Amino acid sequence: MPPAHTLARRTRVAVGELAGEPFVTTRPGYWQRALTDRLFTDAVIVCEGDEPYAIRGLVSAGVGIGLMPAMARRLAPDPPVGWLHLDAPCRRTLSLVWRTDAYRPAAARALTDFAAGYFRTWTGDG
């Protein structure tokens, strides 16, 4: 939510409470757009783009509201936005794949070890 939005002071919101809100999202083909289209069949999309961080800037500026993963809250604290948990059955699956018959450099092995350990216990609560 834009920081000045009336709902921005809350911590949770239901899908139905966002009916008629202007949305800022990615173009078709990105997960944010697919989720927006699935949850908000009558969404009024006022702006779309290709860069999630730019979309956050547009939300912060008050252009509309948008969907972002909880992880984005920790990783990039600016520009400021109001964060609400969306009460909807949403789940993302992240997959990490590599060829077992190819050389994996030490950095790639370290990344897979880190990611497997980190996401094994991650709750997604931000």
Notes on the protein architecture:
With 126 residues, the protein is of the alpha/beta class. It is built from four helices and four strands. The chain has helices at residues 31-39, 52-60, 70-75, 106-121, and strands spanning 12-14, 22-26, 44-49, 85-87. A two-stranded parallel sheet has the order 1-4. The longest helix has 16 residues, at 106-121. The two termini are 16 Å apart. The model has no long low-confidence stretch (mean pLDDT 86).
Helix content: 25-40%
What is the typical, i.e. mean, pLDDT?
A: 86
Spans of at least 5 consecutive residues whose pLDDT stays below 50 are: none
- Largest beta sheet: strand ordering: 1-4
Q: Which geometry do the CA atoms define? A: elongated
Structural category: alpha/beta
Figure out the total of helices.
4
Portion of residues in beta strands equals: 5-15%
Write down the Rg: 17 Å
Helix and strand sequence: EEHEHHEH
Give the termini separation.
16 Å
Question: How many extended strands?
Answer: 4
* Main sheet summary: 2 strands, parallel
Task: List descriptors.
two-stranded parallel ribbon; alpha/beta
Secondary structure topology:
Layout: E1 12-14, E2 22-26, H1 31-39, E3 44-49, H2 52-60, H3 70-75, E4 85-87, H4 106-121
Parallel strand pairs: 1-4, 2-3
Short description:
The protein is of the alpha/beta class and 126 residues long.
